[in-house]
Amino acid sequence: MGVTNATIRAVNGLTARWAGASGAAEGGTVLSAAGVWPLLAFLADGAGGAARAELADALGLPADEAAFAARELLGVLSAMPGLDSALGLWTNRTLELRDRWEAGLPAAAHGMLTGDGPADKAALDAWAVERTGGLIEEMPVQLDEDTAMVLASALALRTEWLRPFREWPVSPEAGPWSDRTLLGLLRRSALLDRVGVADTPAGHVTELKVLGDNAIDVHLLLGEEGMSAGQVLGAGVDILARRCPVVPGPHLPYGHVGPGLWVVKERSARPVPPTLDVQTMAFDMSSHHDLLELHHVFGLTTARDRSHGHFPRISDFPLTVGSARQAAMARFGPLGFRAAAVTAIAVAPGGVPRLQWVTTSVKAAFDRPFGFLALHRHSRLVLAAGWVTDPEPYREDEED
Hints:
Layout: H1 5-21, E1 29-31, H2 33-46, H3 49-59, H4 63-79, E2 83-92, H5 99-103, E3 110-113, H6 117-132, E4 149-157, E5 159-160, E6 166-170, E7 182-189, E8 195-200, E9 203-210, E10 216-223, H7 229-240, E11 246-248, E12 255-258, E13 261-268, E14 275-281, E15 283-290, H8 295-298, E16 325-332, E17 336-337, E18 357-365, E19 370-376, E20 382-388
C-alpha cells in the first residue's frame, strides 16, 4: 500500500468521531469518511488563519501535509480492486484559481459551472451516476447564482463473498425486531477465527469478519445492549488499530461468551471439526448527511462564516463553505456487499441419524441493531461504515 499509517489512522479516526457525533443510534445510517477526508485535506491546503487550523485538527494531520496525503490516498483508492474513486472540481468562469493549488489536484478533475442552474445540476448529477455506477443518482449539493466552486469525491465499492450466505426467514425471539419476519442470511464454516469478542471501554463487542474476494471485507459489530452506535463503531475502529484485546473464536470458552455469541457442545452423526454458525440480516440502506450540522467534527466552523474569505491559497477571490453534504448507500446480501437478493430453499435430510459423536459449535446471531465497517483487508482503511436498524424484510412471494 502506498498510503501511510498516519493517513489511515486519520481517516479511521474521522470515521469514529463522525459516528459518535451523528446520533446514529436514533436510526440507521451509512457514511464514508474516506469520501470526505480528501476534500477536507485540499481545503486545508488552501485555507488560512483559524479555518486552516480547524481543518488540520479535523484531519489529524498538519495542513502543510494535507494535500500530499490526499493525493496519496486517492491514488491508493483508485488502485484497489473492486473500488472506483474520483475527484471533481467545478468553478464558475470568473473564479481564478492559484496555480499551485489547482496543480495539486488530480489531472482532468477541473470542469466549469455555466451559471445555468438546471444545466449545471444535471451535469453534476450525471458525474455522480457515472462515477458510482448508478448507486448514487444525484450530486448532494445545492447550486445557486452565488456558487463559485464545487469540490466533490465519489467512491463505489463492490465485493463478492468468498463463502456465500443462504437466505432464510428469521423472526428474532426478543429485541426491537421481534415482531418482524426478516430476510436472514445463514452460513456455516469451520473457520472459527472469523469471529471474536473484544473488551472495549464501552463494553464487550462481538466482531464477525465477512471476507470478500478482492480484499474488501465487511466487519459486523454487535455490542452489549445499551451501547450506542457511536460506541460500537468506535470500538470497531479500535479493534482494527489493535487498541482493544480480542479473544478469537478458537480460544473462547463454552457458554454465552459475548453479545449474540454462544459456544456449545452438540451431538453429531459423524466426526466433524468445530463449526461457526452465523445468522445475520440482509440490509439495503441509504443516507444523506449535512456535514455543516457537525461542522465541529469536520473542521468547518470558521470556514462557513461568510463575513470574509478563508481560502487565500485557493484564490484571491474570498471563498467560504456554503454547503457540505454526503449521500451514501450500502447493500449487504447473500452473495456480497451491494449484491442483489436471491431466494434459497433449504432441503432437510430425511431420517433420524445416530448421534454418537460430540462437536463444538460457535453460534453468532446478529438479531438486533448492529454496526458494520467496510474496509480494505491489508491496510485496514475503513471505506464505509454504518448502523443497521431496519434490515430487509422476508417476502414470501420471492419464493415464486
